[in-house]
Amino acid sequence: MMTDETLRLDGKVAVVTGAGRGIGRAAALALARAGASVVVNDLDETAVGETVEAIGAAGGRAAGAVAAIGTTQAAETCVATAVERFGDLHVFCANAGILRDSVLWKTSDEDFDAVIGTHLRGSFTCARAAARHFRSRAGGGRLILVSSIAGQRGNFGQTAYAAAKAGIAAMARTWSMELARTEVTVNAIVPNAMTAMTATVPALAEVAERHARGEPIPAPHRQHLGLGSAEDVAPLFVFLASDLAAGITGQCIGIGGDKLSLWSHPREVACALRDGGWTAAAIAEAWPDSLARYSQDVGIDFDVPDA
User: Ketoreductase domain location, by residue (predicted)?
Assistant: First the structure.
């Protein structure tokens, strides 16, 4: 029978960005409980110290790396801290993120750039720094990225966030091919957890208030939406960091509440052929019968059936 003790990470060194709170903190604590030494990154020095202290109090090993993810320097600081404090790096969890939600016509350049810089550029710079380290010695490694349902489906008011998270999923697929020969796996987690970020979603306001009071997330939300706590997401980080996940790469894996899922990659769902190519009139004529019935829906379904 499989137990958590089977998935021990003793001797492994992991970096978790954005680990001062939320999913990142839960992941850092879970990785440490499984035996990994953990570099805790966040731009909030106090939050870094609290997570490091919590890991130490539970008997784990941790070191802090205070930096705002996005720049090459921040990524290299995280890798260097792992090597200097613990002698190596085996797992890099690129989790750091921010929200600047607004509809398209109200989104400023500054807010768009901030979200893309932290999520998309941050994942790129961190993965590049980690990949260079992994390729410098034998033994492979693990890149664990964090995408989003919004990146898979789109979400009203999340232009920058959805774009960044969709890009992260695409990078995971690309990097899984590029790093396969060096035995580095690359996967993107698609989490759904009640955190300070998701609490700002209007459709989840009531559940967020109840969760903040210490009440459990209702079963319909845990199952239909796959919405849980940050601690519900953390086990997937541990599994993907373990030797048992050595054959899993290039995947977008959802987790939250009571739900574990595998997301499909974009692919053609239908096609039509016309000798000599297509004119606008020919497309208009063919569309209703050939492709219209395959049109894809968009957005996140926040409707929850009654308990």
Answer: 12-192
Instruction: Report the C-alpha dihedral over residues 252, 255, 256, 259, rounded to 10 degrees.
Output: 120
The DSSP symbol for 129 reads H
Determine which one of 12, 147, 165, 242 is catalytic: 165
Question: 294 catalytic, yes or no?
Answer: no
Active site residue 12: no
Residue 281's region, left for phi above 0, alpha for psi from -120 to 50, else beta, is alpha
- CATH of segment(s) 8-263: 3.40.50.720
- Among 147, 161, 176, 242, the active-site one is 161
Provide the terminal-to-terminal Cα distance of the chain, rounded to the nearest Å: 33
Catalytic residue among 123, 148, 176, 229: 148
Sheet (strand 91-94) strand order: 62-66, 37-42, 13-16, 91-94, 141-146, 184-191, 252-256, 259-263
Q: What is the pLDDT of residues 182-206, one digit of tens each?
A: 999 999 999 999 887 777 777 788 8
Check if the beta carbon of residue 145 is closer than 8 Å to that of residue 186: yes
93-146: pLDDT as tens digits: 999 999 999 999 999 999 999 999 999 999 999 999 999 999 999 999 999 999
Spatial separation of the C-alpha atoms in residues 37 and 154, rounded to whole Å: 36
State pLDDT tens for residues 234-243.
999 999 999 9
CB contact at 8 A, 40 and 77: no
Q: State which amino acid sits at residue 14.
A: A
Rounded CA-CA distance 151/169 in Å is: 8
